[in-house]
Specification:
By secondary structure, this protein is of the alpha/beta class. The chain has seven helices and seven strands. The protein has two domains: about 80 residues, Double Stranded RNA Binding Domain (2-Layer Sandwich); about 80 residues, Winged helix-like DNA-binding domain superfamily/Winged helix DNA-binding domain (Arc Repressor Mutant, subunit A).
């Protein structure tokens, strides 16, 4: 069984999916079914059940949004994949809050050649455990102006910018159209 809940955060609803004590899905959506549909087939085979609380997993996310950028480091995660993808995602978890890397730097941290930057980008694009597996901390080497400097992010460059500012100790304003209240469990 995959247990699911949705938290209200300053950057919108965050769906969390748990299986056997590990976070297997996390994403900025109010509908956990969207994440469930994208899970690895071995996980997707388990039924989705919405619950009121995911215990320590939810508490860690609430602490993160309340200002403890390291709170998600203790959350166990599980994302089945190829050995190379799993190495890249493990290296991504070691990128500290307030730090950013390029795709090539992420590849090197995973023990791959810098030329594996494309594989690092693909691993980030396939990451289903945001923000606990912090693909938002990876920036393109080319940089850019405005939101373009943040590169791609499944949940939008504005959210990526907000997460990076939040982790660097700034207190960014909630995104437009999102509740300004403290992060907390929704009634979903």
């Amino acid at each position: 069984m995959i247990n699911a809940t949705v938290l209200d955060t300053p950057v919108g609803p965050l769906a969390l999916l748990e299986h056997d004590g590990a976070l297997v899905g996390g994403g900025f959506t109010a509908d956990p079914r969207e994440l469930h549909a994208r899970l690895h087939p071995t996980l997707r085979a388990h039924p989705l059940v919405e619950v009121a609380d995911l215990g320590d997993i939810a508490k860690a996310h609430l602490a993160y949004f309340d200002g403890d950028p390291t709170a998600l480091e203790a959350v166990a995660v599980h994302q089945p994949g190829t050995p190379r993808r799993e190495r890249l995602l493990a290296a991504l978890r070691r990128v500290r809050p307030g730090e950013t890397v390029t795709y090539a730097e992420l590849a090197v941290r995973a023990g791959l050649e810098r030329t594996a930057a494309r594989a690092a980008g693909q691993a980030c694009a396939q990451n289903l455990v945001a923000p606990a597996v912090p693909c938002h901390r990876v920036l393109p080497a080319a940089g850019g102006a405005g939101l373009a400097r943040y590169g791609g992010y499944y949940y939008g460059a504005e959210r990526k910018r907000w997460l990076l500012e939040h982790e660097s100790g700034r207190r960014p304003a909630p995104l437009v159209g999102v509740s300004a209240g403290r992060a907390g469990a929704s009634t979903a």
